[in-house]
Write a structure and sequence with these properties.
Blueprint (H helix, E strand, L loop, with lengths): L1 H33 L2 H13 L4 H29 L2 H11 L2 H8 L1 H27 L1
Helix pairs in contact: 1-3, 1-4, 2-6
Length: 134
């Protein structure tokens, strides 16, 4: 009888932990969505599209978009390892605020301009690397 009770308690604890993890993952995915990650990925996709021949771009977009759930799941796993449930709740509150919404709306523009700025510095960075690699 003790084994049955112990097994039931363990099973309930495992299920309860799994349900909490799923609820946390749902909140994390919402943080990722609200944070403007989609805008950053759109900027990255535009940059990658510039490297692909026009006749292959439509197929690339389909496959790239199919990868997005995997990318967001991988990001969610990292968030769940690095942040507490309370951290995630605070992030949700921020991204649901007016400033958080504005930040998310501007994410694609910020990502694009940042990429352009880094591209402009690429020569300097490369020269610096060469200086210290020799």
């Amino acid at each position: 009888m003790k084994k049955i009770i112990l097994t039931a308690v363990f099973a309930f604890a495992t299920y309860s932990g799994f349900a909490q993890d799923e609820a946390l993952k749902k909140d994390v995915l919402k943080v990722i969505e609200l944070s403007g990650s989609g805008g950053q990925m759109a900027a990255a996709k535009k940059q990658l599209l510039g490297m692909i021949p026009k006749e292959k771009q439509a197929a690339f977009i389909i496959e790239f978009d199919a990868l997005m759930p995997k990318i967001y799941d991988a990001s969610a796993k990292v968030y769940m390892e690095e942040f507490t449930k309370e951290d995630i709740k605070a992030m949700l509150a921020f991204y649901e605020s007016p400033v958080g919404k504005k930040m998310a709306e501007k994410s694609e523009v910020i990502a694009t301009k940042s990429q352009e700025g880094m591209a402009a510095l690429q020569g300097e960075i490369q020269a610096l690397m060469m200086k210290y690699m020799q």
